[in-house]
């Protein structure tokens, strides 16, 4: 009897020794995820952290979304969470406007909006392009922009209308090029944006400088023209950084691409 028990224990040990490393190896191979300090994390943990660090501007200049996170990013930008995150950002714009802005109402109170993924969504385009997992093809993106099918970001439209009703001048500053002007205007009007004061596109003269430099230079001109820029809403740091600084800048989430 004792011999039988010993045999069973022995077999159990052998099996445990065989199976445990196998399971470990399988985990490692499937997820390839284990941080330096040995903390085991899931693919969702990894991709969530990647996205968060993009938003925190710790990860910069990425060319494509990491392959293992394409599915995660696709789910995020089509999720309720993305909508809630965007809504929170635009609501904070209104909190700021109501509590900290002493509007003069002389026609020079102004707010700057970016266009892509701020007023108009490019998610339908990126849906067909691995949600940023494929390197940007400018020609195909511009073809899509010309079709004028970009939907509005609902919460941005609400903010836009609210600002307009408070007498704030709406200034649209986009890195879209001049040749997309009429398609862009048609698209904006079709989804409900109208009544802006200025819309500024990139002309060939400033296509060679960075978007941040181009947008800063535009702001410089607007400030010289007398506008008080109370705030900016954009989805890229290049839309909101640079001198002259706005009094406040608000960033919408965008983990699909990076524009310097
Ligand atoms: Mg944008």
UniProtKB/TrEMBL annotation:
Annotated signal sequence range: 1-25
Single GO term (MF): acid phosphatase activity
SUPFAM superfamilies hit by this protein: HAD-like
Alphabetized UniProt keyword annotations: Glycoprotein, Signal, Storage protein
UniProt keyword Signal present: yes
Domain of life: Eukaryota
Gene3D superfamilies: HAD superfamily/HAD-like (3.40.50.1000)
Family, as annotated: Belongs to the APS1/VSP family.
Function: May function as somatic storage protein during early seedling development.
Protein name: Acid phosphatase 1
């Amino acid at each position: 009897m004792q011999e039988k028990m010993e045999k069973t224990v022995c077999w159990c040990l052998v099996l445990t020794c065989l199976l445990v490393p196998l399971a470990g190896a399988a985990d490692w191979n499937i997820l390839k995820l284990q941080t330096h300090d040995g903390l085991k994390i899931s693919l969702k943990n990894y991709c969530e952290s990647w996205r968060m660090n993009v938003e925190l501007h710790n990860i910069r200049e990425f060319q494509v979304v990491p392959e293992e996170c394409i599915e995660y990013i696709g789910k995020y930008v089509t999720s309720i969470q993305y909508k809630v995150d965007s809504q929170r950002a635009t609501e904070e714009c209104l909190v700021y406007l109501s509590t900290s802005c002493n509007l003069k109402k002389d026609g020079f109170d102004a707010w700057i909006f970016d266009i892509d993924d701020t007023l108009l969504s490019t998610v339908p385009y990126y849906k067909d392009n691995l949600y940023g997992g494929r390197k940007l093809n400018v020609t195909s993106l511009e073809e899509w922009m010309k079709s004028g099918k970009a939907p509005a970001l609902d919460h941005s439209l609400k903010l836009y209308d609210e600002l307009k009703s408070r007498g704030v001048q709406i200034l649209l500053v986009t890195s879209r090029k001049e040749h997309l002007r009429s398609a862009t205007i048609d698209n904006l009007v079709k989804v409900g944006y109208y009544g802006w004061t200025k819309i500024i596109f990139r002309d060939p003269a400033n296509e060679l400088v960075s978007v941040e430099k181009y947008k800063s230079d535009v702001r410089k001109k607007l400030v010289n023209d007398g506008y008080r820029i109370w705030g900016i809403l954009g989805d890229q740091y290049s839309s909101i950084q640079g001198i002259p600084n706005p009094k406040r800048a608000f960033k919408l989430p965008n983990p699909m691409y990076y524009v310097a």
